[in-house]
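Hi V.,

Quick status before I head out on leave. The structure for the redesign project is tokenized and pasted below; the design run finished overnight.
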């Protein structure tokens, strides 16, 4: 998966050099090329839950893991190429996750009732993504800091690895008729859970730039992700009844996502700075397959929730050739 993302990034980021050579030879005509970099301070929430069976009855959800307040400073490089009405756009980003908490709950009854286990752990991890879009410039107006409206389609790869360390909580057996509650504790430096999330999504969106003055413009992008292929590899490091390569796997296709970006860009000559806010939501749908890989054999269950959200401000720098 990561090799595919890097290959996409190399392909997209390599297009400008080829286009510049073609332009120099006089075969292409004018090419508008912009290279950029930015820092995005984002906060993230991820949720994974699944249904299961207790005492012969189905429970939905049986287990729910919520990663909350996972912060990351994402470093991104991007490229935009416009030739006549053709638009090519790509970006690659990476970050180390920091802070945040994992909340792990197990239930004996439907609808989050009869909770019999609750733990909290600290979080570390990293994320990476690559996206590539192709489309057309539907409208273009003005001089200097021009206005434009683009329609784009493309592909996005997103990978996020999260690791939980230590835990504090309880195990409560009262939902099973046993009036006993026990503490659940693990040392802060002990790795308890690793999650690898993979999202491969189709993209359909529009973006625009609206000049406000000769140097200042409003820039916005709205993208719908109408279809996502999702996979999760889960390792429960302390569970001796489970395999660790991985312990659980989950797969799902479908779902719906959205990406919204808005900000102001200020330019002088070919150089410009941009600041704004970005929101990303990915939902892989419900009803996918989840497999528990016990040492005694696999058990199949159904997913009830898989989603990711990230949001926060960004600051970027671009150079237009």
């Amino acid at each position: 998966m990561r090799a595919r993302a890097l290959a996409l990034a190399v392909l997209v980021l390599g297009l400008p050099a080829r286009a510049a050579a073609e332009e120099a030879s006089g075969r292409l005509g004018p090419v508008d090329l912009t290279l950029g970099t930015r820092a995005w301070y984002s906060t993230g929430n991820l949720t994974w839950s699944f249904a299961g069976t207790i005492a012969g009855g189905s429970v939905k959800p049986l287990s729910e893991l919520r990663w909350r307040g996972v912060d990351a400073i994402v470093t991104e490089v991007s490229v935009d190429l416009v030739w006549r009405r053709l638009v090519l756009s790509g970006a690659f980003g990476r970050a180390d996750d920091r802070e945040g908490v994992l909340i792990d709950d197990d239930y004996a009854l439907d609808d989050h009732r009869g909770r019999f286990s609750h733990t909290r752990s600290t979080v570390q991890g990293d994320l990476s993504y690559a996206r590539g879009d192709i489309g057309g410039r539907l409208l273009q107006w003005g001089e200097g800091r021009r206005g434009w409206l683009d329609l784009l389609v493309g592909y996005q790869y997103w990978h996020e690895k999260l690791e939980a360390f230590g835990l504090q909580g309880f195990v409560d057996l009262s939902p099973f008729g046993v009036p006993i509650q026990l503490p659940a504790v693990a040392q802060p430096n002990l790795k308890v859970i690793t999650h690898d999330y993979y999202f491969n999504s189709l993209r359909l969106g529009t973006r625009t730039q609206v000049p406000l003055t000769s140097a200042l413009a409003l820039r916005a992008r709205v993208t719908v992700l109408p279809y996502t292929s999702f996979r999760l590899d889960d390792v429960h490091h302390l569970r001796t009844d489970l395999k660790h390569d991985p312990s659980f796997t989950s797969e799902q296709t479908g779902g719906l996502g959205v990406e919204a970006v808005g900000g102001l860009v200020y330019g002088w000559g070919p150089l410009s700075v941009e600041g704004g806010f970005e929101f990303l939501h990915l939902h892989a749908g419900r009803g996918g397959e989840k497999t528990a890989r016990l040492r005694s054999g696999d058990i199949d269950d159904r997913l009830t929730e898989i989603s990711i959200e990230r949001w926060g401000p960004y600051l970027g720098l671009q150079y237009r050739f």
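Above is the designed sequence. The radius of gyration is 23 Å.

G. will cover questions while I'm gone.

Best,
W.
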